[in-house]
Amino acid sequence: MPEILLDPLVLIIAGVAVGTYALRLGGLLLADRLPRKGAIAAGLERLPGIVLLALVVPAVTDLGLLGIVAATATAAAAILSRSPLLAMVVGAGVVAGARALGWG
Amino acid sequence: MRFRDSFSPASLWQGARDNLGIGVAVSGYGAVFGVLVAGKGISLAAMEAMNLFIFAGASQFIMVEMWHPRAVAAEIILAALIVNLRYMLIGASLRPLFLGRPFAHKAAGMHLVADENWAVTMNAHARDPDALSPGHLLGGGLCLAAFWHASSIAGHALGGVLPAPEVLGLDFAFTAVFLALAIGLWKGRGDVLPWLVTGVTAWAAAALLPGKWYVLIAAVAGFAVTVALHARRRSLEECRADA
Q: Is the sign of the CA dihedral B194, B196, B198, B201 positive or negative?
C-alpha cells in the first residue's frame, strides 16, 4: 500500500470529509424522517454547543487564573459584539498581554 | 431538468454577491486557521485537502487543535463529526429549496453548504420563496470558499514568519473561538444544567484520562441531560393537559 494512505492525518481528513458530506446530503435526503420535535431532536440541536463547551473548559482551567480571566473577557466580547472573530482577538490579546507583562 | 435550471450563472452570481460581506469576515478566521495549521507543522497540501474536501470551519479548527503525530484517528474523526452533526439539520431545512430536483443536483449542491451561506440563502428564501434556486446557495458557497482558501493560504505562509504562537496568545485562540461559537448557540435558561454537567464532566475527565476522550465523554453526558430534561418537561406538560 502506498505510504501516504497510512499517514494518520490523511486517514483523519478522509474520514471527516466523507462523514461531513454524508451528513450534509443525508440530512437533505432524510428530511422527512428526522425527528423534528421531541427530546431527541432537542438534544441533537444542542449537541454542537455542548461539544464546543467540552473542548473549552479543560483548555481554560489548564491556564489557571489567567485562563479564567481570558475566558471571561472572551465571553463578554462575544456577548457584546456578537462577533466570534472580535471575541477571539480579545481573548488571545488578554493572554498575550498578560504574558508580555510576565504573568502566566 | 437540466443542470442549468438549478445552477444558472445568474443565480450563482447573485448568491456570490449576497455572501461578499460575510466572506470578508470569514477571511479573518481563515487567516488565523492558516497560522495555527502552520504552527502545528501541518503541510499546506494537507490544509488544502481539508479546505477542499471538508469545508467546515469549526470542525477543521477542532481537527488541527487535536492533531498530534501520535493522535488516535478515531477520537479526532468522531469529535469533528459530532460538531458537524448540525449539517444534518441544516440539510433537512433545505428541503424546500431542492424540492422536485434530481438527485445529481442535490449531490452537487450540498457539499459547499456552510453556516454562513445557508443563513444568507434561507433569509433570501424567506423573503421571496419562488425567486430562489440551489444556485444561490452554491454561488454563496463558492464565494466563501474563495475567501477561505485565499486567507488560510496567506495565514499558512505567514505562520512560518511569526514569533512562537504562545507569544501572540494564539494557543488560546482556539479556545476563544470555540467559546464564542458556543455562546452563539446558547438557547436560554434550559441550557444551564446541561452546560454545567458538560463543563464539570469535561474538567474531571480531562484530569483523570489521557488524550482527548474528555470531549466525547462530556458530550455524551451533556446530550443525556438535555434529552432527559426535555423528556421530563414533555411528560409534565402532558400531566397538566390531563388534569
A: negative
A43 contacts chain B (CB < 8 A): yes
Q: Which residues contact B67 (CB under 8 A, 6 or more apart)?
A: A9, A12, B40, B42, B76
Residue of A11, A25, A50, A82 to mutate for B, most B C-beta atoms under 10 A: A50
pTM, entire model:
0.78
Q: Is residue A1 pLDDT above 60, yes or no?
A: no
The dihedral built from the CA positions of residue B175, B179, B182 and B184, taken in this order, carries a sign that is negative
Question: pLDDT per residue over B19-76, tens digit each?
Answer: 998 888 788 889 989 998 998 899 999 999 999 999 998 899 999 999 988 888 998 9
Size of interface A-B (CB pairs under 8 A): 284
Residue A12 contacts B, CB cutoff 8 Å: yes
ipTM here: 0.84
Q: What is the DSSP letter of B8?
A: -
Question: Exposure pattern of A47-79 as b/e (b: 16+ CB <10 Å)?
Answer: bbbbbbbbbbbbbbbebeebbebbbebbbebbe
Amino acid symbol at B165? P
DSSP code for B1: -
Q: A68 — contact with chain B (CB < 8 Å)? A: no
Q: What is the DSSP string of A61-84?
A: HHTHHHHHHHHHHHHHHHHHH--H
Q: What is the mean pLDDT of residues B134-154?
A: 97
C-alpha B177/C-alpha B183 separation (Å) is 10
For B88, which of A27, A49, A57 is closest by C-beta distance? Answer: A27
CA distances from B131 to B14, B64, B127, B128 (A): 11, 40, 9, 6
> In a 3-state reduction of DSSP, which class is residue B84?
coil
C-alpha–C-alpha distance, residues B15 and B143, integer Å: 8
Is the Cα dihedral B224, B226, B227, B229 positive or negative?
Answer: positive
Burial of B67 (0-12, 13-18, 19+ CB in 10 A): middle
The phi, psi pair for B99, rounded to 5°, reads: -60, 125
